[in-house]
Amino acid sequence: MVLITGILRKPRSNKLYTHNEYLRIEEKAKSKNEFYKGLIIPMAGAKAIHNEISANIVATLKAAVRPLPTTYRVYTSDQKIRIDSEDTTVYPDALVICEKPEFWKGREDIIVNPYVIVEVLSKSTQNYDRGEKFMLYQRLPSLKEYIVVEQHTPLVESWYQLEENTWQKTAAQGTDGLLSIRSLGITLRLDEVYEHIDF
User: Fold this and answer.
1) 120: three-class secondary structure by DSSP
2) The pLDDT of residue 44
3) pLDDT at residue 13, rounded to an integer
4) What is the pLDDT of residues 59-87, one digit of tens each?
5) Would you say 191 and 199 are in contact if contact means Cβ atoms under 8 Å apart?
6) CB 3.0 to 4.6 Å from 104: which of 88, 110, 137, 165, for a disulfide?
7) Is 24 domain-assigned?
């Protein structure tokens, strides 16, 4: 098992794989796996509430950035992110690219330049998403803002990069809450993020 911020994440085996081996396995896999320094680690399956919130976020972000003068592209949870410096490949719940995407070795399923990353928290992953995964994401030079979304209470938190290694946290709570996404110059409405979600 791999100890990450207090959570034991069990790899599919103790064997160390190359990244290319992982990609070949992932192409045939029935469920998603992440790659962490040679280990292939299965992801927990997402439930309906998680998937609905993720879909709401993608739709809300897409609508908000569409009229902006800068071109932003919004991607869903099937888009992998490669963190070369950490030999790690992960799946976010949503991400935003500024202008043109940069793909890892030309593979269009793997992004290396996310501008904004969003994770929807679950009980089994929230410590990892707030801790180790955020630290991994900070190794990406392109990343300007990291957003985490609670599932079971209307709460969204954002970490915005003020300067290198300095991140400022803001939060909005309640279905009438508004959260400024400073990297994009937009406001995220929590009633849209949690549309059709009952608490």
Assistant:
1) strand
2) 79
3) 74
4) 999 999 999 999 999 999 999 999 999 99
5) no
6) 110
7) no
CATH code at 151?
3.90.1570.10
Q: What global pTM score does this model have? A: 0.93
Q: What is the Cα–Cα distance from 57 to 55, expressed in whole angstroms?
A: 5
Phi, psi of 71 (to 5 degrees): -85, 120
Tokens 């309906």 sit on residue: 48
* Whole-angstrom distance, CA of residue 15 vs CA of residue 17: 6
Q: Given strand 116-120, what is the order of strands in its sheet? A: 72-75, 94-98, 116-120, 145-149, 155-163, 166-173
Q: Give the residue numbers spanning the domain of 159.
A: 46-193
Contacts (Cβ under 8 Å, ≥6 apart) of 191 = 175, 176
Judge whether 66 and 73 are in contact, CB under 8 Å: no
Contacts with 4 (C-beta within 8 Å, 6 or more apart), sequence order: 36, 128, 131, 132
pLDDT at 6: 40
Per-residue model confidence (pLDDT) at position 124: 82
The answer to whether residues 129 and 138 touch, using CB atoms and an 8 Å cutoff, is no
| Beta pairing partners, 90 | 81
Ranges under pLDDT 70 in the chain: 1-9, 12
Tally the domains of the chain.
1
